[in-house]
Design a protein that fits this description.
Distance between the termini of chain A: 44 Å
EC number (chains A, B): 5.4.99.61
Number of domains of chain A: 1
Oligomer: homodimer
Domain Cobalamin biosynthesis precorrin-8X methylmutase CobH/CbiC (chains A, B): 11-203
Largest sheet of chain A: 6 strands, mixed
Strand order of the largest sheet of chain A: 1-6-5-4-2-3
GO molecular function (chains A, B): precorrin-8X methylmutase activity
Structural class of chain A: alpha/beta
Family (chains A, B): Belongs to the CobH/CbiC family.
Keywords (chains A, B): Cobalamin biosynthesis, Isomerase
Radius of gyration of chain A: 17 Å
Shape of chain A: globular
Strand content of chain A: 5-15%
């Protein structure tokens, strides 16, 4: 059996040093670097840094919202499970509506997915919230439609839906027209709950 | 706003058709194909199929274990959150010991990570279980050490730890010497909870 590193602090230090060495983080604004670092760390792929679209103020906007007590709204339970509660700076609520009663019926009535229907239940909480989408392209599309229809704006949209149908397209849509909302999006098919949660964890981790 | 696919059945069909078209699944044994398909679907990366190491009987071993009622043991809450309970064929228990009381102290005493210490608590449940590791290389290393020390064998190890320190190494270790346990491992740095959960979901989904 080969030897391996067991000390958690040493593992973290070596991980982040590797990201630092390989990812050319100096191309990102200061406020984005912790987020980029943690997203890369969560997926083991330095090259995702090349595919990030973002507004220059995204890191700062998310950080300010969290420190002001904004809720984190997630599209699925896996994102919520990845958010380290002790890193949230204001005991922020973490909200997932996907499994609320009535969502399957609402999805049928609206002719869409459960993930998109669950977005309807965000209406009363969306103003100033941090939105973390790590699974469903239709959730991101549906949120953009509601913003177009006049919903109040969230503080930040972390757009990491994943997969072969709609993921690349929904992220291209927000990157092309973020509707005046600060955002981070990983272009293309890649994404996932771990990256979305890591982005949230980065925001809460350090004061600006 | 561009048009997008909203019908869940159509989205699934198109997703899986894309995977089928791009991933050359015919190189895999029948019993592995649903697992490979779902792992690719979970991460949006067809090319992970090129990096899978596995025992030929892995799919079948996992399926049999789940249908016989084996528990699923996960290294973190995110993996557990990604397992679709309705797809588990025997109301199988999904077990995560990472946040059990005493684990931080055990980690300190053993001089290792919490993830590795949490593996100690698997001892009474490991025989015949399906193990899904989607986060911590040290959990996989620790499990292999315990198997070397004489622990009973699980039915299957799904090895998807992720990251820059130990992930590639721990998966190379199990691929080089699986200790007589059927396994699936994604070689290299990539991995994650979504892939580990998707692998479990594939096993429960269809009878052999």
């Amino acid at each position: 059996m080969r030897r391996y590193l067991k000390d958690p602090a040493a593992i973290y230090a070596e991980s982040f040093a590797t990201v630092e060495r390989e990812a050319r983080l100096d191309r990102f604004p200061d406020g984005m670097r912790p987020l980029v670092t943690r997203v890369i760390h969560a997926c083991g792929m330095v090259e995702v840094a090349d595919r990030l679209a973002y507004s220059p103020d995204a890191g700062e906007a998310g950080r300010q919202a969290l420190f002001a007590g904004a809720p984190v709204i997630c599209d699925c339970e896996m994102v919520a499970a990845g958010i380290i509660r002790s890193r949230l700076p204001a005991g922020n609520e973490v909200l997932v509506t996907l499994n609320e009663p009535g969502v399957p019926e609402l999805a049928q009535r609206l002719g869409t997915t459960r993930s998109a229907a669950a977005v309807e239940l965000w209406e009363g909480r969306i103003a100033g919230a941090v939105v973390a989408i790590g699974n469903a392209p239709t959730a991101l599309f549906h949120l953009l439609e509601r913003l177009d229809a006049g919903w109040p704006k969230p503080a930040l949209i972390l757009a990491f839906p994943v997969g072969f149908v709609g993921a690349a397209e929904s992220k291209a849509e927000i990157a092309a027209d973020p509707r005046g909302v600060p955002f981070v999006a990983l272009k293309g098919r890649r994404g996932g709950s771990a990256m979305a949660a890591a982005a949230v964890n980065a925001l809460g981790g350090e004061r600006a």
